[in-house]
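FW: tagging you since you asked about this chain on Friday. Here's the raw sequence from the shared folder, copied in full. Didn't touch anything.
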Amino acid sequence: MGETTTIKTDDGQFAAYVARPSNPKAPAIVVIQEIFGVNAVMRGVCDELAAAGFLAVCPDLFWRIEPGIDITDQSEAEWKKAFELYNAFDIDAGVKDIAATIDHVRALPEVNGKVGAVGFCLGGLLAYLTATRTDADASVAYYGVGIEKHLVESEKQAHPLLMHIAEEDQFVPKEAQALILAQLKNHPQVEIFTYPGRDHAFARQGGEHYDAADAKLASGRTLAFFQQHLA
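HL: got it, structure written out here
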């Protein structure tokens, strides 16, 4: 079980879920939410990372719109709410809040100074932007939506980025995937894995398109990536 902490910024403060590892000095990972807020799925990701030896923190990035969003993908009403939040979300402000979270956890005495980030869906885009705009030591993007609109930012990326792309992603068309691969496949700091036959959110437990085998494969690659760059 995790706990809740508060991150303070010049614009205000917001809550974040924190899961702590058993080891006394550990790297940290910022878990970047989907469009459903800091829900059970995101808290579960944090708990799994903590069990693997990382201090994991998931900030409430919707706090500027409506604090405390915690919904699922299991009803039409929740999907409607999620897309309303997505459409109202300020991406630039969200990245600034992630940067503030990185600064907060990096300063914790129980953190070894290394901080990574992993994001899913909307969070996948934000993880990519975290790699290009912040000093995160390593970032992982799962099926990020809209990355193709920000590819020019890869020119200033200085830290490692791992990307998981679902080849049949209904929210990332083939044309967008082709642009991403063309721009980033030879980038010295980018590693990309694609998953044939997989749709968006194939790693979301309980989701319509969840695939246990590829979710496990992607998770193993993610953990190995973080162990390499954050140890």
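FW: Strands lie at 3-9, 12-19, 26-32, 55-59, 111-120, 138-142, 161-166, 190-195.
HL: agreed, and The longest strand covers residues 111-120.
FW: great, closing this out.
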